[in-house]
Each structure stands twice: as C-alpha cells, then as structure tokens.
Amino acid sequence: MIKDYQTKNKQILAEGANSLRNPIKAFLLIKHLVIDWKIIENLMMQNVAKVFIRRIAEERIKQKIKYPTEEDLTGAATAIFRLQDVYKLNTKDLSNGKIFDVGSNQNLSARDCFLIGRAAYRAKDYYHALLWMQEAYDKVQKESEPSFEDLQDIMEKLSFALFKQGNVKRALLLIEQLKEIAPNHKRTAKKIKLYEEALKKEGFKPNEFRENIPPMENRRFEDETRYRTTHIYEALCRNEIPIGDEEISKLYCYYKQDHPYLLLAPFKVEIVRFDPLAVIFHDVISNEEISIIQEVSHSRLERAQVVSPATRRREPASFRISKNVWLENNEHEIVERLNRRIHLMTNLDLKFAEDLQIANYGIGGYYDVHYDFFMKDSPLLESLPQGNRIATVLFYMSQPEIGGATAFIPIKTTVLPSKNGALFWYNLVRSGEGDHRTHHAACPVLVGIKWIANKWIHEAGQEFLRPCGLKETDQEAFVGDLGGPVPKDHSNIRS
C-alpha cells in the first residue's frame, strides 16, 4: 500500500500542474490526498508513528499547505456530473479516461466510480448516482480480485438509484441478488419489501414482479419543458448554436482610435453582437502582465462568493464555483495601468468602478446564468450611491483547451476565451434600465484552467460619457458611440 502511494506521488510530481488540467486526473489526485492518505495515516498509527504524523502536520501548517478534504472530493465528483451534462460525456468513456476521443493514461477503478456515484447518491441526485453505480457494478465484476464489501455497497446503492428513477423491477432483481450473495446484509429485506409495495401500487401482481423487465429509464429532469434555459445554456457551452448568416454579415473588426494616445497604439476591436453591443478587444493584456497578476493573486485566492439579497453579505453559492481575489487600485502598478487602459477602451469613467476581480476556474469551475447588474427592486441597489453596474470588462488571462466560454442566453451567443483579449458589454440600456439580453453564464472548464480578471463599472460619472438617447430604443453601434460615424465607414479618430 505504501509503495503504491509513493509511486502515485512520483507520477503526480512528474506531471506537475498538468494533473489538474484533466477532470479525471484532478479527481484521482484529490482522492489520493484525501482517502489514500487517510489509509496511510491509519497504518502509521498502528506502527506507533504518531510523532512522524505530528511532524508532517506541523510542517504542512508551517508551509501553509492545505490538503483537500472530503468536501473537496465531493466537489470534484459534482464537477464531473456538471461536465457530463453540459458536454454530453459518456460515463464509460470518462471512467476510461477518455474525453472527446482523446484518451489519457488514467482509468477509474470500480472503487473510484463508486466514490463518484456515492457523492450523487448522498445528494439525492439519483440520475448521476445510477450512471456511476452502474459503471462501478460493470467494472467490479471484471476485476480479478474484487472487494466483496465494495460489491455489496455498489449493489445496494445501485438498486435504490434504479428504484428512485422508476426502474422498480430491476431494483428488485438486483437487491435479491445481493441477498443471495450476502444473506446477513442488514438492509436487503427492508428494501425488498419497499420495492414490492411500490410494484403493488403500480398494479402488478406478485407473480409479475420479476417478469417482462422494461428497458432501463434514467431521466435527468422530470419535466423537460421547465428546463429550456438550461438546455440553451448547455448547447451554447458546446458551441452548437451558430449565429445566423444575416447577423454575421453585419459584424466587423476595426481599430479604435478615438483618443490622441490611440493614434499611435490603436485597439483592435471585434464586434461579436449588436443587439446588445458586445465586443472583444484583442491583445490588450500582455503575458507579462498576466504572470504578475497571477503571482500577486495566487496565494490569496479563496472560494468565490456572491452578494446575498437577503443578508446583503457575500456568501458562497453552489451556482458559482471558482476562486477569486479583489485587487485594489493602489495595490500594484499593473492594476493602475489596467484601469487607465480600460478607460481608453470603454470611454467610461472608472472613479466609481469596483476593484479588479481576479478569478480562477479549476475542475468544472463555472458561474451559472446571471445578470451583472442589480434589479431595480434589489435592496442592494439602494445601498450603492455610485449607481448600478453600467458595463463589464472581462479579461481572458488563459485559454482552456476545452470549455470556459461566456454564453449569453437570450441572444444565443457563445464567446470562446481568447487569451490576452477582453470581452466588453453594457449591462444597462442608455436609459439606465437593466438590459435583460445580457443574461449570461461562464461555462464550465472541461480541460485546462481558466483565469480571468473583470472590472465592473458603475453609472456615476458617466452622464456625459454615455448619455441617454433621444429615443428609448437608442443603443450604441460601437464602443463610445456618441452619434459619430461608424468605424466601418470612417476611422473613428477624435479631432
């Protein structure tokens, strides 16, 4: 056991950070540090090695090394479920370390599949529990020396997941098989009675309980029509909804030169949508700046939080999985430099903008569908003298191999991460009302790691920089549009 642990340690050290770029490898790494280490620790305790264990713990505290916990292992399993759903990944392929026809040298054992399925089971997520317990059952039967204890656990939980997903006859057959191989199992009799009672309620007679077994069902949602937004979001994350030809024909790129400074160093701008306006500024943050920001932020990253409308405090939320840190304007010259650049990019005043938020999205990291602006009736808005969030600037500081796109649901638009670039959009229409077309999400990272930096700019100070239009429907044709010629037809150079 100890030799196996040492071998795995050497493999992990050889791969370095790459072991966190693949969701299966990341799960196995966390499992190695949570479960495998606990086994080693128990073995050492039996051999009177308490002093060594204490020294290891003290050294970890001294070096500020945090080992993952059971909660982290559950989070890694939940991330796998999320990735499965969004990117339509096959359970068997995943268990064999395969993602979109790309294999790895890491396969999951029956025990690994059981641990993943158990996370779903404990959360009463019987859809994913069934997928992974079935895979664990298939694998354990092929193992040369399967653990009898694992087999019992798998069969019991698989039978109950089958039952909860409407496969009552299959559940009954499986739990009876478990009773045969483990007559003294404590819970089989109770479950057999439960399943038989359910079949009686469905109108089956006792002699029909084990006949005409229907195909297995495993529905993710009971009512698919209620989850239309979810399906659109997931399709956008897979980049399956293309922009129409008519819309594409209107899009273009241009050099932004509406400031004397930009005559020598114009911004490269790509318009990705007009209704509402969304653009990408290309090559606006250098690799050197990215490295410095990551270095400054890395040791301070903590679980990302959202502002709760009820408590008005920042709290962790299941719909936002990432780590973040806020960098104040005077914290580093890079932050001040980015602020000046954002002003030139957006033509907006940053006096009342929020601090620069740095976020890191690891295994399955995402931010579910949300608005960046606050609703008019939100008590949070009342406490903001600087007004609502008028605009968002989102710098891409890395480029995941797969996933991590920004998806706008109402306008069905996917923006893939482009390292060194920045995505910009207005959160409010020119009248100051929230623009509901900006309902968006950060898609989960499938392979790789995603770093972003974002700046939320508020309404105060923008009265003359982004005034109301003459009509309620007026909106920008380009960034900083005050009624001048569009860049496509004329160089937007300030006179």
UniProtKB/TrEMBL annotation:
EC code(s) of this entry: 1.14.11.2
Gene3D superfamilies per record: 6.10.140.1460, q2cbj1_9rhob like domain, Tetratricopeptide repeat domain
Localization (cell): Endoplasmic reticulum lumen
Domain Fe2OG dioxygenase: 352-459
Record PROSITE patterns: FE2OG_OXY
MF terms in GO: iron ion binding; L-ascorbic acid binding; procollagen-proline 4-dioxygenase activity
Cofactors demanded by this protein: L-ascorbate
InterPro entries per UniProt: Oxoglu/Fe-dep_dioxygenase_dom (IPR005123), P4H_N (IPR013547), P4HA-like (IPR045054), Pro_4_hyd_alph (IPR006620), Pro_4_hyd_alph_FE2OG_OXY (IPR044862), TPR-like_helical_dom_sf (IPR011990), TPR_P4H (IPR059068)
Any Pfam family the entry gives: 2OG-FeII_Oxy_3
Domain of life the protein comes from: Eukaryota
One GO CC annotation: endoplasmic reticulum lumen
Keyword set, alphabetical order: Dioxygenase, Endoplasmic reticulum, Glycoprotein, Iron, Metal-binding, Oxidoreductase, Vitamin C
Family: Belongs to the P4HA family.
Family matches, as PANTHER family: PROLYL 4-HYDROXYLASE ALPHA SUBUNIT, PROLYL 4-HYDROXYLASE SUBUNIT ALPHA-2
Function description: Catalyzes the post-translational formation of 4-hydroxyproline in -Xaa-Pro-Gly- sequences in collagens and other proteins.
Full protein name: procollagen-proline 4-dioxygenase
